[in-house]
Amino acid sequence: MKSPRRLLNSILFLLLFFVIGLPFVPLILSSVSFGWPWPNVLPDSFSFRAWEYVLADSSGTWSVVGTSLLVAFIVTAVNLLLAVPAANALVRNSFRGKWLMEAIIFAPIVIPPFVAVMGIHLTFLRLGLTETILGVVLAHISPTLPYMVRAIMISYNTLSVDWENQARMLGAGPISRFVHVVLPHLLPGIAAGASLSILISLSQYLITFIIGSGQVVTLPILLFPFISGGDPAVASAYSLLYAGIAVLTLVGMDLALKKYYQNKKAATGKG
Amino acid sequence: MSDLRIINIEKQYPQTKQQKDPAFSLQPVALTIKEGEFFSLLGPSGCGKTTLLKLVAGLMPADKGEIWVGDDHLTAVAPEARRFAMVFQQSLLFPHMTVEDNVAFGLKMQKIGKRERLADAQSMLEHVGLSGYGSRFPDELSGGQQQRVALARALVAKPRVLLMDEPFSALDPSLREEMRELLRGVQKEFHVTVLFVTHDREEAFYLSDRIGVMSEGKLLQIGKPKEIYEQPANVKVASFLGLKNIIEGRVINNRFVSNDQSFEVPVQTSIKTGPSVMIIRPETIRLVPDNIVKNLQCLYFRGVIQQKIFNHGFYSVKVQAGEYLLTCSFTSQEAENMKVGQTIDLMMNNGDLRFLNE
């Protein structure tokens, strides 16, 4: 019984590796190549020129990474503040026009960002928000918020009002109820929503490009000219860096969350 | 004295479009529960007893009426500030906290220091027989243990009133009895006022100092368990209490005559002329001893045994008398020689009969 299962597991793992891992191989080769003319299977010669350029202070990579992460984290924090009350209202109450509210919140998932961003751009021009980080952050909220709300709504769906009533009957005011009862229950949903929010914010090109007008430079903005402009080696190196940062951020968040739960358990365990 | 006073509280649920039947409403309820008293609300599901409990807790706003404890007017006070506690049907222990922290939660909300509140929690856990379980998490406990923790958690902050919403109905019968014993002991020990909601007659009779019987949003009768059982105020109460032998008939000239004419008994003048019922409690029916001189204080009748069932130490015997199938309780000794199909003479004191106008 066990060995066929193990076999299946290894086949699936290999498949996963080929689908996810294989595309990285040419990317890595390309990033260390020095000329790779068609139809050669391998590059002619190797050099670390691209990486030297990317990692050098003069290319400004690190400040761009900083900007990208700053935008992503602010967007996620704002999303959190918006999504928790929104999810609460959408799950717990039934009111006239609720479907319309949900439709508006979830619309960015189906409507192309280009449609909205033109209007946003015009408005932001008048408000003087273009070319600022604040403007980019605000513009990033529309494509990321739906995922955050969705994830937290699922958490709220499984939280019966009885829990809060119970806490209430034990003397817990609104803040205590939220901190001690609601938040711990929402945490997995918040983690899922925050991961999506960070990833989507990190990968926005069009919105950042239009609202930031080249003044707010995030990784995709930095990457794009190299892809279209003909230095595939540097583009590959940036792509790898970009993927690495996304993965690191997610892993970091996951670890922080696990640590939070462990601490909680350890602290209560000690009593 | 800090009695709990419920003054003409009422609640009307708005009628929704989907439901065609009239909206449920809780008729005005007036009730005083003495300090340290164990009061049960007994009624079938959907009779409004949980609604009443939530109104008292403040988890639901009342349309009219007031709640007082002693001299404190609590109608407008938020539930978290009423210093009540509540145990729900599910234990609702916070899953991310240990048993100890769960029990200490109420004290934490009162800003009591960590050492003190954990010590209190420990001693309360001891009272419910769970000392040593403090550092476990709720999912490591059985259903009965979880409900014990919920009880400890409710009691630890010394609530003015403990509200309980069918707390044992999710447990299996033997565990339920154990919990009953425990609750009774703890309630007497801490002298806590309890408002208990249940649909289980046995539970209510076992635990309560007084019982309020509810049906369809109305509080029908309040009284000590014995009073309610022996003198139900009306047919609804009697049938909900599971009283057998409800015989329909009419009262004419201060005499009750059953519909099939087989029973005729004098009644007190307080019973009005007209359609009414007679209730015979199974344990008041006796065999007629030999050589007895019949007197007017007793009702005699003859019946045919239809069924004989052994039931927890006594026999439950069904006797066909006239058109009625009466349930009687006999001791094993009395029932020894009874056989199905046999005709027997039975009697009861007129004073044990209960008459109600319909």
Account of the protein in words:
The complex is a heterodimer of chains A (271) and B (358). Chain A is an all-alpha fold and 271 residues long. Helix content of chain A is 79%, strand content 0%. Chain B has 2 domains: 4-236, 3-Layer(aba) Sandwich (Rossmann fold), CATH 3.40.50.300; 244-357, OB fold (Dihydrolipoamide Acetyltransferase, E2P) (Beta Barrel), CATH 2.40.50.100. Helix content of chain B is 25%, strand content 34%. In chain B, helix 2 (99-109) packs parallel to helix 4 (143-155). The longest helix of chain B is centred in the middle third of the chain and has 18 residues, at 173-190. The interface between A and B is medium-sized, with 19 and 30 residues. Chain A: It comes from Planomicrobium stackebrandtii. Chain A: It is found in: Cell inner membrane; Cell membrane. Chain A: The chain crosses the membrane at residues 12-36, 69-91, 103-124, 178-199, 206-227, 239-257. Chain A: Residues 65-251 form the ABC transmembrane type-1 domain.
Count every helix of chain B, treating DSSP H or I runs of 4 or more residues as helices. 9
Give the % helix of chain B: 10-25%
Which of globular, elongated, flat, extended, rod-shaped describes the shape of chain B?
elongated
Low-confidence stretches of chain B: none
Binned strand content of chain A: under 5%
Strand order of the largest sheet of chain B: 6-7-8-3-9-10
Rounded average pLDDT of chain B: 88
- What do we call the CATH homologous superfamily of the largest domain in chain B? P-loop containing nucleotide triphosphate hydrolases
Name the beta content range of chain B.
25-35%
Helix content of chain A: over 70%
Main sheet summary of chain B: 6 strands, mixed
Instruction: Name the pair of protein chains with the most residues at their interface, and give those residue counts.
Output: A-B, 19 and 30 residues
Average predicted local confidence, pLDDT of chain A? 88
Kindly name the structural category of chain B: alpha+beta
